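From the shared-data thread, chain only:
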Amino acid sequence: MAFLGPFGTYAMPSGLRIAYWVIFGVIGYALFRPMAVMMHKLRDIIPVPVWVAELLGCMVAALPFSLFVAFMMAGLQWDSALIFRHYGLLYVQCTAVGFGIYLFIYMVFDWLHGNSTVAADTKVDQVAPSRSALHERLPIGFPNQIDALKSEDHYVHVYARDECGDHKEMILMRLSDAIKEVNNIEGLQVHRSWWVAHHAIESCNRDSRKYKLILHNGMEVAVSQARVGDLKTAGYIA
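Structure, as tokens:
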């Protein structure tokens, strides 16, 4: 952005222009990132397309950010910033830049996860699935390979693992609906509170008639007696 010099900053000396845009980047992230997270949470309550939620978040975050940019451009004078005659245009530009950066990050993360290899500790013959419908509710960059779903009250905890480590997110929805949205991943509901992907099962422990699945991230999942037959039929346990 310092190289492009938008918002009239190109006329500045290069060192000052870089300093300006470093400050803009830090303040912009502090404003836009929390709003993006809030918009993801909002989508759990109000079903809207992901780009609509992010655009709304950018429009809200751009309000204070535009004022800050105006303040900087007015020579750190609040009086001048508040009556900045081009504030409307500046707001539109800040919204467009923020949304453009979001789209760029979305495409980069989607490409990286769509082309990444399967982690070494997953099954060798397991092909990484494409993004499921559930990923529309999850943050950008959440791994395609979902390991397990756990219901708790009115929420569902989503667990995944990739080469960067373990990931966990919480979504406001029913477990039964979440299971429908991961139908591209081979797995079974093993308990009234748990759904587990086949690739995530590392081993199975049995104590008397009680079964417990050990996942490759170290989690232990109890299997209800009513589900044991389905797991054996599917070949998940012996």
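The first helix runs from residue 14 to 43.
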